[in-house]
C-alpha cells in the first residue's frame, strides 16, 4: 500500500511494517530473472560454497556444538518469554551508566528519533557501523530527508552504497558482486562521496581494501556522530556488543562524540555470562571463524561523549504473540541458513525483496511485514523444505516448520485451490483413487508430452513419467499380493 | 508380527514396480507383508502447500487404516518423515487422534530402517550388476536421519558397483509443489544434481523417494542422457542378474 494516497498516515506497524525495501514482484518472478544471470550465479556459488565449507569445518571441531546450540536456543527462549522484564532492566542499566534510552514502535518513529538526535548535535553527516536494524527501517533514506547524509563504513555496505545498490546478504551484503565489479564501482563512484579511488586501481583484493581504507579513514577522522546496531544487549550490565571483522565498526564506536544505537528488542540477553555461548556460536556459524576478529562492547557513555539507545519494535511484538512463528525472534543474524540454502545460492538476496533474505527472511519478512502483498505471500514458498537451514541454525530455529505454518495462513490462487480440492476428494476414498488410477491406465497412451496451464512448469524442463497400465493396488488384488 | 505396507499414493499410482519390489523383497526375507486396502495418501502435499484441513483429514484416514499393526513399512523417506514429523503436530498435544498418531508413529519405518533396524539384515540377497550412484533425499537424510543404512544395504548387493555422488546432500529441487511454484529455481537446482549424476558415470541413479527421482529422472530423460532412475527397493528386490533390470526413466 502506498501511504498518503488516500490521506492515510505514513506507514506504521498497524498497517504495513516497513522493512527497508519496497515489496514488489512475487519471489518466483524475481527468482526466474536471477537464475538466468550467469555472473550472479557464479558469484553466489563461489561465495556461499566457500563460507559453507568453512563453517562446516569449524563447527565440526567443537565437540559440544549440539550442547552449545541447545544452550543458545534455551537462553533466547527464556529471554523472549520474559522480554518485558529484561527490556526494563536493560533500560535501567543503560541509564545508570549515563546513556539515554528511547522506545520506537515502528520504523517511522525510530527514524524520527534518530534524526532528532542527530539534528540536536548540529551535524549533517554520520558514519555507520554495519547494522541490520537500520537497514530494516530505511534509516539512511529517512535521514536524507532531514538533510543528513549517512556514510556506510563496512566494506561491503560501502560497495552497496557507492553502487546505488541493495544489500543481498545479511553478513556479506555485496556477495552478489565480484572483485572486477567492485573495482568498477570504486573507480567510478568513490569521488562522488569523498576521497577518490587511486587512478591505477586494480581488482586485486589488497588494492581494493587499501582504496576503501584511505577513503574511509578521512571520514572516521572528521565525523562527530556515529550510528550502529548491536548484536547483543546485556540487561544485567547495560552493555552493548557489536561483532565485526574489519575494525571499521570500532572506529565508529570510539572516535565520534555521539553514538546512537538502533537495536531490535529481541537482541537483549539476560546476563554477561550468556555471551559465553553466543560469542562461540555466532562467529563459527557466520563467517566460519573460531573467534570473532573485532568484538566491541560498551556500557553507557564516558565523559565528553553521548550515547543513545533506540529500542525498536517494528512488528516484533506481533511475531512474539505467535506460538509457532515466534522462534524466528531467536535469530542472531549469522546467515548460516543463507549460505547453506540451495534456493538462496541460485537466486541471491534481492529476489526476497527484503533486507532479510534467504530462509530466515522467508519466515521473518512475512511475519514482520504481514502478508498483504503478493511478494510477502510468496516468500513462505521460496523453499523446497530441504531442511538444511534448520540443521545449521545455531539457535535451532525450525525454519521448515514455520514456513509450512505460514503457508497455511494466506489465501491460495484459485486454480491451485481447485486442484488441491479435487486431489483431496479423490484421496479421501480409496475406491475413488482406484477408479481414477484405472481411468489413467486406460488413457495412458493419450497422455500429452507437455502439460497445460500451471502444470506446464513441470514439462518445460522435465519429462513426465509414463502412466502404468495397472496401479499397485490393482496388481495386489489381481495377484493376491503376488501369490497368484 | 503383523506388517503393513504403506505404499504411498505416488508409488501406488505411478510407480507400482516399487511396491511390487518391496513385497518381493520382504517375502524373500520371510515377512508376510499386508496391504491395508483403505490407504490412500499421507497428506504431505496438502500439508506442505498450506492446506492443513485436508492434510488433517488424510492423516486421520491413514492413521485409522494403519493402527493395530506391529510395523508399518514405507518405501519413501519423505512420506515416512511426514508421518513421523508432521502427524504429531497436526494431531496436537492430546486427545484420541494424538494417541493413535503416537502408536502409529512408534512403529512406522522407512524401508531401509525396517530392513536394518527391525529385521537386522544388511545383505538382502540381491544381485544387480550395474554401476549405481545413490542420492540421499532431503527428508530421508535430514528428516528421518537414514544415515548409512541405504549405502550399507547397497554395498552388499552382488555385482553392484557403487559410486559416490558429488554434493550428494544437496537438495535436488523437487520439494513437492515447489517444483511448480518455483519452477525456475527448481530446474536450476535439478540441473546441478543432473550434472553431478552424469559426472559419476553411473548408469543408474537410486534413492529412497520416487518423487525426487521423478524430478531428476524427468530432466535426465529430457536430456536423453541414458541414465536410469530406480527406487532403492527395486535394486534390493532384484534377485537374479537382471539384464533389462530397472525402468528407463520414463517407463516402467
UniProtKB/TrEMBL annotation, chain A:
InterPro entries: 4Fe4S_Fe-S-bd, 4Fe4S_Fe_S_CS, FTHF_cligase-like_sf, Helical_ferredxn, LUD_dom, LutB/LldF, LutB_C, NagB/RpiA_transferase-like. Residues 410-478 form the Lactate utilization protein B C-terminal domain. PROSITE patterns: 4FE4S_FER_1 (PS00198). The keyword Acetylation does not apply. It holds the Pfam family LutB_C. Residues 89-304 form the LUD domain. Keywords: 4Fe-4S, Electron transport, Iron, Iron-sulfur, Metal-binding, Repeat, Transport. It comes from the Bacteria. The keyword Coiled coil does not apply. Residues 328-397 form the 4Fe-4S ferredoxin-type domain. This is Lactate utilization protein.
UniProtKB/TrEMBL annotation, chain B:
InterPro entries: Cys_rich_dom. GO terms for molecular function: oxidoreductase activity. Transmembrane segments: none annotated. Residues 3-84, 132-216 form the Cysteine-rich domain. It holds the Pfam family CCG. It comes from the Bacteria. GO terms for cellular component: cytosol. PANTHER family: LACTATE UTILIZATION PROTEIN A, UNCHARACTERIZED PROTEIN YKGE. This is (Fe-S)-binding protein. It comes from Microbispora triticiradicis.
Amino acid at each position: 500500500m502506498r501511504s498518503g494516497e488516500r490521506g492515510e498516515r505514513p506507514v506504521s506497524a498497524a498497517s504495513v511494517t516497513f522493512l527497508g525495501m519496497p515489496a514488489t514482484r512475487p519471489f518466483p518472478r524475481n527468482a526466474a530473472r536471477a537464475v538466468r544471470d550467469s555472473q550472479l550465479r557464479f558469484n553466489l556459488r563461489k561465495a556461499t560454497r566457500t563460507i559453507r565449507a568453512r563453517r562446516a569445518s569449524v563447527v565440526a571441531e567443537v565437540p559440544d556444538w549440539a550442547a552449545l546450540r541447545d544452550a543458545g536456543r534455551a537462553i533466547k527462549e527464556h529471554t523472549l518469554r520474559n522480554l518485558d522484564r529484561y527490556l526494563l532492566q536493560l533500560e535501567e542499566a543503560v541509564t545508570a551508566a549515563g546513556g539515554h534510552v528511547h522506545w520506537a514502535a515502528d520504523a517511522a518513529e525510530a527514524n524520527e528519533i534518530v534524526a532528532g538526535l542527530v539534528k540536536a548535535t548540529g551535524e549533517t553527516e554520520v558514519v555507520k557501523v554495519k547494522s541490520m536494524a537500520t537497514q530494516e527501517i530505511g534509516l539512511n533514506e529517512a535521514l536524507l530527508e532531514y538533510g543528513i547524509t549517512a556514510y556506510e563504513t563496512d566494506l561491503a555496505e560501502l560497495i552497496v552504497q557507492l553502487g546505488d545498490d541493495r544489500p543481498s546478504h545479511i553478513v556479506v551484503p555485496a556477495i552478489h558482486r565480484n572483485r572486477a565489479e567492485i573495482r568498477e564501482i570504486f573507480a567510478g563512484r568513490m569521488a562522488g562521496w569523498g576521497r577518490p579511488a587511486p587512478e591505477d586501481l586494480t581488482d586485486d583484493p589488497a588494492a581494493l581494501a587499501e582504496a576503501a581504507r584511505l577513503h574511509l579513514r578521512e571520514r572516521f577522522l572528521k565525523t562527530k556522530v556515529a550510528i550502529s546496531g548491536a548484536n547483543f544487549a546485556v540487561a544485567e550490565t547495560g552493555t552493548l556488543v557489536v561483532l565485526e571483522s574489519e575494525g571499521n565498526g570500532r572506529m565508529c564506536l570510539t572516535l565520534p562524540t555521539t553514538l546512537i544505537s538502533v537495536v531490535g528488542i529481541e537482541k537483549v540477553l539476560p546476563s554477561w555470562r550468556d555471551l559465553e555461548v553466543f560469542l562461540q556460536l555466532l562467529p563459527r556459524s557466520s563467517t566460519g571463524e573460531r573467534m570473532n576478529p573485532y568484538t566491541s562492547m560498551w556500557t553507557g557513555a564516558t565523559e565528553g561523549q553521548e550515547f543513545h539507545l533506540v529500542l525498536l519494535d517494528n512488528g516484533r511484538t506481533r511475531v512474539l504473540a505467535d506460538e509457532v512463528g515466534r522462534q524466528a525472534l531467536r535469530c542472531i543474524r549469522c546467515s548460516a541458513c543463507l549460505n547453506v540454502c540451495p534456493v538462496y545460492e541460485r537466486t541471491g538476496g534481492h529476489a526476497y525483496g527484503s533486507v532479510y533474505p534467504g530462509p530466515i527472511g522467508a519466515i521473518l519478512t512475512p511475519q514482520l511485514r504481514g502478508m498483504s502483498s503478493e511478494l510477502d505471500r510468496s516468500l513462505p514458498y521460496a523453499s523446497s523444505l530441504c531442511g538444511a537451514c534448520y540443521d545449521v541454525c545455531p539457535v535451532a530455529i525450525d525454519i521448515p516448520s514455520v514456513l509450512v505454518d505460514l503457508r497455511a495462513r494466506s489465501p491460495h490462487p484459485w486454480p491451485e485451490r481447485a486442484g488441491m480440492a479435487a486431489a483431496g476428494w479423490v484421496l479421501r476414498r480409496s475406491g475413488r483413487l482406484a477408479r481414477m488410477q484405472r481411468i489413467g491406465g486406460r488413457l495412458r497412451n493419450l497422455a500429452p508430452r507437455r502439460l497445460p496451464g500451471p502444470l506446464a512448469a513441470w514439462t518445460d524442463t522435465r519429462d513426465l513419467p509414463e502412466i502404468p497400465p495397472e496401479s499397485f493396488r490393482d496388481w495386489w488384488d489381481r495377484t493376491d499380493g503376488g501369490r497368484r | 508380527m503383523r506388517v503393513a505396507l504403506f505404499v504411498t499414493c505416488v508409488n501406488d499410482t505411478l510407480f507400482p514396480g516399487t511396491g511390487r519390489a518391496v513385497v518381493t523383497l520382504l517375502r524373500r526375507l520371510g515377512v508376510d507383508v499386508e496391504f491395508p486396502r483403505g490407504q490412500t495418501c499421507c497428506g504431505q502435499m496438502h500439508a506442505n502447500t498450506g492446506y492443513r484441513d485436508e492434510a488433517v483429514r488424510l492423516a486421520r484416514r491413514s492413521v485409522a487404516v494403519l493402527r493395530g499393526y506391529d510395523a508399518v513399512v514405507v518405501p519413501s523417506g519423505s512420506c515416512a518423515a511426514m508421518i513421523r514429523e508432521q502427524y504429531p503436530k497436526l494431531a496436537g498435544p492430546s486427545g484420541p487422534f494424538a494417541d493413535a498418531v503416537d502408536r502409529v508413529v512408534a512403529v512406522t519405518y522407512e524401508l531401509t530402517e525396517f530392513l536394518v533396524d527391525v529385521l537386522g539384515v544388511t545383505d538382502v540377497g540381491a544381485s544387480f550388476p550395474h554401476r549405481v550412484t545413490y542420492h540421499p533425499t532431503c527428508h530421508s537424510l535430514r528428516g528421518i536421519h537414514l544415515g548409512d543404512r541405504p549405502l550399507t544395504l547397497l554395498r552388499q548387493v552382488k555385482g553392484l558397483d557403487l559410486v559416490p555422488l558429488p554434493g550428494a546432500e544437496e537438495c535436488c529441487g523437487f520439494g513437492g509443489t515447489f517444483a511448480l511454484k518455483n519452477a525456475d529455481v527448481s530446474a536450476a537446482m535439478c540441473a546441478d544434481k543432473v550434472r553431478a549424476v552424469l559426472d559419476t558415470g553411473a548408469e543408474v541413479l537410486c534413492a529412497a523417494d520416487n518423487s525426487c527421482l521423478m524430478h531428476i529422472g524427468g530432466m535426465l530423460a529430457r536430456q536423453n542422457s541414458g541414465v536410469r532412475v530406480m527406487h532403492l527397493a527395486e535394486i534390493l528386490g532384484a534377485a537374479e542378474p537382471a539384464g533389462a533390470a530397472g525402468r528407463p526413466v520414463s517407463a516402467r
